[in-house]
From TrEMBL:
Gene source species: termite gut metagenome
Residue stretches making up the FecR protein domain: 120-212
Signal peptide bounds: none
Transmembrane parts of this sequence: 85-103
Protein name: FecR protein domain-containing protein
Gene Ontology molecular functions: sigma factor antagonist activity
Pfam families given in the database record: FecR, FecR_C
Record-annotated Protein FecR C-terminal domain positions: 259-328
Alphabetic keyword roster: Membrane, Transmembrane, Transmembrane helix
Length: 329
């Protein structure tokens, strides 16, 4: 029996602290033993004999934004099997099992002595955070940032799921590194934006000023240097990355509360709107698959105003808003 399987089974007879659960989040984005982890968790998932109740949907939707899930493929499995298990059982299976593995088997030195903080931004909000080195972070809706309470090591490492704009205090002796499921973004002192939501098909880094060095996890031997007004866009499905010139004001429009759609698919629009307005959107048709929408909302439009405009762009679209739920037909 593998160590991972033993650890997951041992979880059911133990309780772990919040600090260990946070450290799990950091470990989970690591790409080591991905196939074995997924296989073991999938088998345990399939063997659970649990029925969902009326709170399953809301609990699971909250879970999506709380967990630092690093593999989109596993999230898709969760969506397909949502009717089988409630979020309350999913949380400990994922978090505690991997936290234990990380602490007991990681080769990182003295990890137990590092105190991590987790900063979560709910859907519908944008928040500002000051880091221990006085660097500033503006986090977009539905984002999670995990960082040491003190930058005592040789580098300033942070772990991001979501979107954030960093204004980094320069320290030539201590590089600032943002780690996501796809890439490591290293800087000394600069202003840049990272977008890496776990449920998105793409991730990106955009530079406003200074210089950033990017290393993709699937190409560790290669580095990508960005200059101001450049963006590195990574396609998770194809594994292909590209660097292009962009309008930095458009990329950072979310900082001012603006919403900019640039040739977005309906699937991308739904995820963006769910985060922005803190709603759940149900799409009951595949007839919008070929739609690509470009639009700009800069007047603080409410959700009903947004969909009124979207319907003008897609005249055959039908929708209904019921509280925190939106149905598209």
């Amino acid at each position: 029996m593998s160590k991972i399987r033993q650890i997951i089974q041992e979880y059911f007879n133990n309780t772990y602290s919040e600090s260990i659960r946070k450290k799990f989040s950091i470990w989970l984005v690591d790409s080591k033993a991905t196939e074995e982890k997924d296989k073991t968790l999938q088998e345990i998932w399939d063997n659970l004999n649990i029925s969902a109740d009326t709170s399953t949907e809301s609990s699971y939707l909250q879970l999506q934004h709380r967990l630092f899930i690093g593999r989109k493929t596993y999230r898709r499995q969760l969506f397909r099997k949502i009717e089988k298990i409630t979020a309350v059982f999913l949380i400990p299976i994922l978090s505690v099992a991997f936290s234990y593995f990380y602490l007991k088997n990681s080769k990182l030195p003295a990890i137990e002595n590092i105190e991590y903080a987790e900063y979560f931004v709910p859907n519908g909000e944008i928040r500002t955070l000051t880091l221990p080195d006085s660097s500033k972070v503006l986090l977009n809706s539905g984002s999670v940032l995990i960082y040491p309470q003190k930058f005592d090591g040789k580098t300033r490492d942070l772990y991001l799921n979501g979107e954030a704009c960093f204004t980094v205090v320069r320290d030539e002796n201590k590089p600032f590194i943002v780690k996501t499921q796809d890439m490591h973004v290293e800087v000394l002192g600069t202003v840049f934006n990272v977008s890496s939501y776990a449920d998105s098909g793409n991730s990106s880094t955009t530079l406003e000023s200074g210089v950033v060095n990017i290393r993709l996890k699937n190409k560790q031997s290669e580095s990508i240097l960005l200059k101001p007004n450049e963006q590195m866009l990574y396609n998770r499905k194809s594994g292909v990355s590209e660097v292009k010139q962009v309008n930095i004001e458009t990329i950072l429009a979310w900082k001012e509360g603006h919403l900019v759609l640039q040739s977005m698919s309906m699937d991308e629009i739904i995820k963006t709107i769910e985060r922005r307005y803190d709603v759940t959107i149900f799409l009951n048709s595949n007839k919008y698959n070929k739609e690509k929408i470009t639009a700009k909302f800069i007047h603080g439009e409410k959700i009903n105003e947004f969909f009124a405009v979207l319907q003008q762009l897609i005249p055959y679209m039908k929708y209904k808003i019921e509280g925190k739920k939106v149905y598209i037909y």
